[in-house]
Amino acid sequence: MSELTTTRAACLARDDQDPLAPLRQRFDLPAGVIYLDGNSLGARPRAALQRAQEVVAREWGQDLIKSWNTAGWFDLPKRLGARLAPLVGAGADEVVVTDSTSLNLFKALAAAVRIQAQGETANRRVIVTERSNFPTDIYMAEGLTSWLERGYSVRLVDSSEELPAAIDADCAVVMLTHVNYRTGHQHDMAALTRHAHQNGALVVWDLAHSAGAVPVDLNGAEADFAVGCTYKYLNGGPGAPAFIWVPRRHQARFAHPLSGWWGHAQPFAMAHGFAPADGIGRALCGTPPVVSLAMVECGLEVFEETTMDAIRAKSLQLTDLFIELVESRCAAHPLGLVTPREHARRGSQVSFTHPHGYAVMQALIARGVIGDYREPEIMRFGFTPLYTSFADVWDAVEILKDILDREDYDVGAERGAVT
Ligand SMILES: *Cc1c(COP(=O)(O)O)cnc(C)c1O
């Protein structure tokens, strides 16, 4: 490591030069908080408060049920999907915002398994994923395979190096999270998709930690299906609905068991028997949560002021700076970098282990530096270029250093239900 030349003044100078700096004004963050948890719950766009008032007071309160037509409620899942699409390299008619990531994953997996069950791939019965994947992804895949029975199962791979070999003649579907929630490791989407296709498998990508965080090109990679969150880097609000991507080439044969009336070709015909909508509409299930969906639009609007390339460039600068400062300023302490140093393999977060990671994170939060903790021993720091400054990074590391130097944390701290 070269000698530290960075100073707080140098960080402030970088903020002055930062083309994304003005976008911080689009968010309402409490004074005295350095928010490094936008990878778990994004900050609130300023516009969300007024939009919520409009939707609740006028559209719901005054216009009541007429708003399904007059305020565009009916089209919201598709309209938001079209607005989100460019962030992940998707076509405007290939994405809807609906349901949760868990549910969308179930739909995508079920559709992929069904496609594979036809023709010469019919004997493939394995869904391959990583043991380190986010638990709900694995739970949903296991839920699906145990309901299907007939020999379907989930194969868990222990490291990404073992992935290519695990995609064998039994593998029907590969389900991968593009950026790992714990380590921040980023997969090579194009290369893994190509490998899976060469070996006869379809690929479902989870973009929970990618959408709005790193550039994604689903169509460029010729991926098969994708899902992702809007409440993380896309700043859609707590519990905001997720998205699902079905490329045009798979839409006609995209079928899933959650055949609710919103996925019907004519929901208000109230017909007997399910007939799926043409196109992406068939990925919908039931009535969407309109108030929550409206908030998603406020998050997406901010992205239209910049590009994912500009966001990525700043994200790498922020994470490089954080790693450099932690490793130099806190060198006396037992911190271990978990996140890859190599840019191509890094998402927009940095994780460090510490033997008292949970207690140290609680102390950081008490001092206004909000990150989070994931078992085992991992302190997670998410970097969101839309509202995080270089001076924030400097200040966060100084507070971390102070806490560690003075051992100012409580190892017996009680854990909340959400860590
Ligand atoms: C955050 C996250 C989820 C969340 O799923 P929900 O259904 O919204 O609870 C799923 N998968 C991954 C990889 C995540 O990071």
UniProtKB/TrEMBL annotation:
Q: Which UniProt keywords apply?
A: Hydrolase, Pyridine nucleotide biosynthesis, Pyridoxal phosphate
**Pfam families assigned:** KYNU_C
Which terms does the record give in the GO molecular function aspect? kynureninase activity
Kindly give the SUPFAM superfamilies that the UniProt entry links to this protein: PLP-dependent transferases
Q: Which residues carry this modification: N6-(pyridoxal phosphate)lysine?
A: 232
Supply the EC number(s).
3.7.1.3
* Catalytic activity reported: 3-hydroxy-L-kynurenine + H2O = 3-hydroxyanthranilate + L-alanine + H(+); L-kynurenine + H2O = anthranilate + L-alanine + H(+)
What span is annotated as the signal peptide, if there is one? none
The record's annotation in InterPro entries points to: Kynureninase, PyrdxlP-dep_Trfase, PyrdxlP-dep_Trfase_major, PyrdxlP-dep_Trfase_small
Highest taxon, organism lineage: Bacteria
Q: Where does pyridoxal 5'-phosphate bind?
A: 101-102, 134-137, 177, 206, 209, 231, 261, 287
| Entry function | Catalyzes the cleavage of L-kynurenine (L-Kyn) and L-3-hydroxykynurenine (L-3OHKyn) into anthranilic acid (AA) and 3-hydroxyanthranilic acid (3-OHAA), respectively.
The UniProt similarity line reads:
Belongs to the kynureninase family.
Q: How does it assemble?
A: Homodimer.
Q: What is this protein called?
A: Kynureninase
Q: Organism, per UniProt? A: Massilia haematophila
